[in-house]
Every structure is written in structure tokens, then in C-alpha cells.
Amino acid sequence: MNNKLLISFLLLSTSLFFSCHGPVKEEKNNASANPITLHVGDEKYVTIDTKQSVATWKGANSFGSHTGYVYISKGELKLENNQLVSGTAEIDMNTLEDEKYGRNNGLIKHLKSPDFFDVKNFPTATIELTKVAIVNGENIKITGNLTIKGITRPVTFPAKITFKDGDVNINSKLIIDRTDWGIRYKSKKFLENLADQTISDSIEFDIKVVAKK
């Protein structure tokens, strides 16, 4: 091979080498400069303020009705993009009290007995929020699992939610059939000839929850 042919061959080889490897190096640089980013929603948890949160209960019998309170011992709510998505709360059943006479009276002692909530064996009740649907404005519909006396049943109930300065306020009304949780004392569903001694199967709860960041 003469010198001119050898020089031409070397120039051609060098040109092919850089043309094949140049773009690969540029592609790597571009990949480093523009990494793939996975977007994660604005997720945070807020703690339920047990001093400001309370459930007001109402039960009735043939002679009238009783109203009282029971308190949340702990809980938290999960927010995503400033919307409630889930949460949990534990209710201290030992805090049951009557609106007029407090905690140390015959009614409350009976409610804590095995006839009703059997608080000695089941000192807490829990609710787990599993789904929250926006109805309109501040109105939402909550679905969750309510556990009383070790029995878990699904519940759905309306609520109103507001956000202010990072705090969350929820006001809701939950009505349950106590017999779904094994509380059958003087229920006309299971006992006959009770006459005027029946106790309503429905228990109403007006629940106020305040949670803070």
C-alpha cells in the first residue's frame, strides 16, 4: 500500500470512529441533565386534638331519651392536596358520660355493663376512614369501618369539613343500629312482649373532630 492510500485509509477510519461514538456520549450527557422525576402528591398527616374533639350520643326508650358524651383518646387524619382521604380514631369508652349527671350514675354504669358496651372487656372503640367523597362545597360523605365490642361493621355518613390555618374541622352525624354490634338488650327485634320497656335500636352520634398539623 502506497503512502497516499494509507493516509486516506487512516482519515476514513478516524472519521467513522468519531461519527459512531460521538452521539452516544451526547445521549449520556442528556440523560444525566434531565433525570426522570416521579410526582408525589402533597401528602401529610394531622393529629386529632383530643381536648377539642367529642362525640355526643343520643339514645331513646319508651319514656324518653338520654344524651351524653364520649371522647376520642387518639387519632390522625391523612390529607392529600388539601383533601381528606383517610384517618383513624380511637374512642375511650370509659369516658362515657350523661349530659345531666356525669359519669357516676346508674345509667352510665348500665351502659358500661355487658348489657350494652361491656367496657371492662372492650375499653375502646375505633373507626377507620377508608373513603371520602366530595358531595359539594364543604359537604362530604365518609365511608369507614366502625369497631365496637370487637365487632367491625362498615358505615357511611355525611359530614362537613373546613380547613383553616392548617387545622381541620369535621362535623358529622352517624346513626347506627346497635344490634349490628351485638347490643341486643331490650331490643324488640329479639324479645317479645316488652310492652313499654323497649329501648330503641338506633344510637345517634354527633361527632366533632378538630385536627392540627
From TrEMBL:
Domain of life here?
Bacteria
- Tell me yes or no: is Signal among this UniProt entry's keywords: yes
Q: In the UniProt record, does the keyword Phosphoprotein occur?
A: no
Among SMART domains, the record links this protein to: YceI
Residue ranges of domain Lipid/polyisoprenoid-binding YceI-like in the record: 45-212
**Keywords (A to Z) from UniProt:** Signal
Q: What is this protein called?
A: YceI family protein
The organism of origin for this protein: Pedobacter planticolens
